Amino acid sequence: MSGSRRSRRNRGDKSLSNPVIVPPSPSGACPGVDDEATTEERSYEIYYDDGEGSGLQPLPPTMSEFLMGSGFDRLLYQLVHIEVNSFGRSKNPPALKSAIESVPIIQIASNHDKLRDLHSVLPYVMEFPHQELLSIVMIKKFNLARKQIFRQNVTFTCHRKTGITRAIAPETTKATVPTSSSVPLANYVPVYVMLPLDVISVDNVFRDQDKCEKQFEELRAAGVDGIMVDVWWGIVEENGAGQYNWSAYRSLFQLVQKTGLKIQAIMSFHQCGGNIGDDVFIPIPEWVLEIGQKNSDIFYTNRAGTRNKECLSLAVDNQPLFEGRTAVQIYSDYMRSFRENMSDFLEAGSIVDIEVGLGPAGELRYPSYTQSQGWKFPGIGEFQCYDKYMKTDFKQAATEAGHPEWNLPDDAGTYNDIPVETGFFGPNGTYLTEKGKFFLTWYSSKLLLHGDQILDEANIAFLGCKVKLSAKATGIHWWYKDASHAAELTAGYYNLDNRDGYRPIARMLSRHNGTFNFTCLEMRNSEHPAYAKCGAQELVQQVLSVGWKENIDVAGENALSRYDGYAYNQILLNARPNGINKNGPPKLKMAGLTYLRLSEKLLQKRNFNTFKIFVKKMHADLDYCPEYEKPAPVSRSKGEISMDELLEATQPTKPFPWDEQTDARIGGILAEYWDRLLNKFSL
């Protein structure tokens, strides 16, 4: 369609005013097509009508190759990316009006499965879905050029004599994005949207049901696969130990099911409030807090003795302090009750994922950087192991290692210090000594054992259910490029340049066939101040790679709410680091993406239009597939993995290579530049 492509024609190939694209049909309705062709075997051939009543004639091979390239879908792709003033993706010159007027006639059998998607291609070009990503000046330029080039909208309608679809000018048309049938479904990445933290109120009521139903319908119309929701322990078991009230969540799930969305349910054994993005307060159950008033060592504690009541300390996992139950038994009973009371949704396949909460914000980590305790970015945070149970455990471990004189760190600084200001994380700091290495191994290993034990209980609770079990780690990207990785270490991720702190987590998850969920997929290093030594891109690459190397599914989410193509393109890159594979499954692909989160701002026209394009790109430009998420029944976890075997995974390996940018990009370079500019003012 460009000058460079026209030069590929042979001189003997006459210009044809009525080229015809004929997709084979099992019905035999298309001339020149084998009646035995199946949907899977379909290929496209080009014919033309010479206008003299002689019927369809095959095009010369070189002309056919010129028009079709690698197939019918490629031609449609070219049609919807026609250049106007060089604002599109390619370097082709603007399309001429004559080129538009000679749009190929398309014969499509009535039962062709892509008929709806091919019905109106050119109006998609003229409505230009990315215009909201561009500056006002560029939009005006585009619209001016469009008026000069396109005099009338064009769509496809049925030709009277032959039943062939011919391009004509209708009064009005509505664009439909063409679907690339050549892309295998294996490239599809499902998209979920996190619901507001208080969709179920703290007093266990599902409010604003009409509003939610409308929003869910908008999500479904946008191609979203499902929603994710916190199932708060502090709401459901608030009235007393073992007293569960699931009624509000059942009402919510019924509405979600009605609108055709799938459900990812988080077993949220933590407080809402005190972390980044928390705008509501939902504490853990009051009866647990009352026990904590008598024994505050059930909570994580920093060196100064400050208690963190977001969640229970892993130190009490096996302590029968809760009316005769241990913390692990509390979590297990809660999950079993969820299964019993939500069995109809589980059996119907509406619930497809159970994310098991393992710490603050539901993440497998220590609460090392809590805003309610004064932490501010990019502070290194503090170790959280100074309750009496953790102290006793460490002293016992040190004694068994032959060092009864070792104590917990006293030189690791406070929440808002930087590494160089501390004795522990500074150059030649304690973290490099035998004592420091022993402590960090103990600290991070306790986290692994904690996650493994609770996931084992989750496996038993949901045994036989057709769901995936998952666990989340968080993207602590600040100080990633400092030798100490201080912020990761205080959170329990013993990750250094010469030690992998995330692969042991992935290996532990592999025992339970669990999905490794990770955050900060939208972030780029350039978006953060240089002094914080952030490495979000390298961190994501490292974590996703170790998950794939351990042969488990990897999923993720954005850490902060973003609405721009610049952030979406980074997520798209991480979702398929080596792009779409048109011949089969991509080499690397995430199992799913949860977008943070549903809000009025997301649903604003500009933001939602961009989001809809993003969802389509996550789906590899395929149609929404309601049957994509069909997990196998949960089978019993494999045998226990020894700590020695888990720690063998700390040997660092190179991450898989990433492309420089996604091949499913939203907008062009100018649009991305505009997004970056706007984002600097909004962050």
Automatic annotation (TrEMBL):
Region Disordered, annotated ranges: 1-38
Keyword line: Carbohydrate metabolism, Glycosidase, Hydrolase, Polysaccharide degradation
Gene Ontology MF terms: beta-amylase activity
Ranges annotated as biased composition (Basic residues): 1-11
Binding residue positions for substrate: D230, H270, D278, K472, H477, T519, N558, A559, R597
One GO-annotated biological process of the protein: polysaccharide catabolic process
Catalytic residues identified in the record: E363 (proton donor), E557 (proton acceptor)
Reactions that this protein is recorded to catalyse: Hydrolysis of (1->4)-alpha-D-glucosidic linkages in polysaccharides so as to remove successive maltose units from the non-reducing ends of the chains
Domain of life per record: Eukaryota
The EC number(s) this enzyme carries: 3.2.1.2
PROSITE patterns: BETA_AMYLASE_2
Pfam families: Glyco_hydro_14 (PF01373)
Record-stated family: Belongs to the glycosyl hydrolase 14 family.
PANTHER family per record: BETA-AMYLASE 1, CHLOROPLASTIC, BETA-AMYLASE 6
Protein name in UniProt: Beta-amylase
Source organism of the structure: Anisodus acutangulus
